[in-house]
Amino acid sequence: MRLACFxxxxxxxxxxxxxxxxxxxxxxxxxxxGQGLVLLRRFGIEVAFVTARSSTVVEQRAAELRIxxxxxxxxxxxxxxxxxxxxxxxxxxxxxxxxxDLPDLRIMANVGLSAAPADAHPWVAERVHxxxxxGGGAGAVREFCDLxxxxxGHVEGLLADLVRPAGVRAEGTA
Length: 174
Hints:
alpha/beta, 6-stranded parallel beta sheet, two-stranded antiparallel sheet, 15% strand, 36% helix, single chain, Rossmann fold, globular
């Protein structure tokens, strides 16, 4: 996989929408999911958020994580992901998508790897390639990121870098 795309509400969040008295929207994002997304980017996997809802909160979270491909108020998620893949010179077989509800099914049927949180709608859950143990907004995205990193053989090197004593250089560095 070279491009990992994610629905937002119900996947990166628990699907709940909060509003303050001024009508401003709030969402909660799990920090573990954010770390997983950062790791994907570190190992050359492009990340995209694709959501049907318009949300400045989503744009803000993407900016914090330095995710460039942020698409809100999207009427056709499949067309959007196809456009991203084409710009990056990727086939749809090199694209993964994680979503949780019926509007995500069309895109899931057209990517190389589809995934869903544990609490995805049952009709979605039974049609994906992989399903997390965690629910949306509760670490499901991190599980999927870890799966992608493991499948591409990045975990051992990552862990070795993280536990190397201070002052010791990685093999092959100056």
